Amino acid sequence: MSAGGFLYAGGWLSSEKLTPVRIADRFEEVHGKHAGFRRNHAKGVCVSGYFTSNGSGTSVSKASVFRPGRTPVIGRFSLSGGKPQATDANDTIRGLGLVFALSNGEQWRTALINIPVFPDNTVQGFYDRLLASKPVPGTGQPDPQKMAEFLAKHPETARAQKIIKTHPPTSGFDDSTFNSLNAFLATNETGVTVPVRWSLVPAQPARPGNTTKPADENYLFDSLIVQLSAHPLQWNLVLTVGEPDDPTDDPTVPWPESRQKITAGTLTIDSVQTEGVGNARDVNFDPLVLPDGISPSDDPLLSARSAVYSQSFTRRSSEPKQPSAVDVSKVQQ
Ligand code: HEM
């Protein structure tokens, strides 16, 4: 299906008069225009490794990645925001984009973040919140009045923010849980389809996050690079299976803790690279590139994400490249 088809299927273009161009423009309005970089999650580092499936995921999905065996993976750890030189901060949202290269030639691309729910359930809400969050010169913080006005109109965001506050960030990328937040549909060999969300749960024990800010402006990335230079890092891929009343179109709402959880295997990351030609820098982690056995849910954010990531990718691909703020060789020296 073309990107236009996704827009139509998502229904967000016609009803809300928002386009991928306007949303990418808004990122530039809020964070500035930084040629060659992603319009969101601009600061990042590339990684590679593999996923070892234990076979348990086949109970819900026929995707070959869930059969026992190993699938090569490339990925990118990132911090949210459109400023590629931003100083690392504990409360900046951490991202992990992954491409699983299935042996049958299919790909599974997924981009996850370290918060338990997403703040918005509509594209318009996301677009309006971006502007309300724009830092004010002087304080460097959002205008409290604008944010209060936004939250008064968006109780779903206020509720989501309360949940997010109960999950303070851990100390680094290595001990973060990364969540898909959007729901998808999984279909198994017998044709049964169930809603799923997925998470990558760290094998590394969680340590509490810093309360004082380290002086090193890349402290989160540097720590990740130091660890990956010494040993691999691992996360368990956990599929959470939704039940009929669980919302699939609203990532601001958590599903009950009691839902079935399937540990489908382990992601091992064993190599780290500075963003550069041919690595994950030049990948679009489009959440709608899915293997047979996983399909999109009715969440309107999915088609919007797909279209906007494509717009961001198109812009950055045609722009001159600048070096990444995160340089693996400097940390390894
Ligand atoms: C469940 C909600 C979301 C999650 C989990 C998520 C996660 C991520 C992650 C991890 C990345 C970085 C991927 C990379 O390293 O390339 C990313 C990039 C990006 N996100 Fe999202 N995101 C979400 C919602 C949205 C929404 C609603 C929008 C706008 C409509 C958006 C716009 C972008 C853009 C423009 C990029 C850069 C894409 C590129 O140039 O490759 N995201 N997102």
TrEMBL record:
Cofactor(s) needed, names only, are: heme
Q: What is its EC number?
A: 1.11.1.-
Active site (catalytic residues): H41
Per its UniProt record, what SMART domains does this chain match? Catalase (SM01060)
Residue stretches making up the Catalase core domain: 7-330
Its keywords, alphabetically, are:
Heme, Iron, Metal-binding, Oxidoreductase, Peroxidase
UniProt superkingdom: Bacteria
First-tier enzyme category under EC? oxidoreductase
Q: Does the keyword Oxidoreductase apply?
A: yes
A single GO CC term for this protein reads:
cytoplasm
Q: GO molecular function: any one?
A: catalase activity
Region (Disordered) spans which residues? 313-333
Q: Where does heme bind?
A: Y309
Write down a Pfam family by its short name: Catalase
GO biological process terms, alphabetically, are:
hydrogen peroxide catabolic process; response to hydrogen peroxide
Would the keyword Cell membrane turn up in this protein's UniProt record?
Answer: no
Record function comment: Has an organic peroxide-dependent peroxidase activity.
| Record family assignment | Belongs to the catalase family.
Name of the protein in its database record: Catalase-related peroxidase
Organism in which the protein naturally occurs: Saccharopolyspora shandongensis
Q: What is the lineage of its organism?
A: Bacteria, Bacillati, Actinomycetota, Actinomycetes, Pseudonocardiales
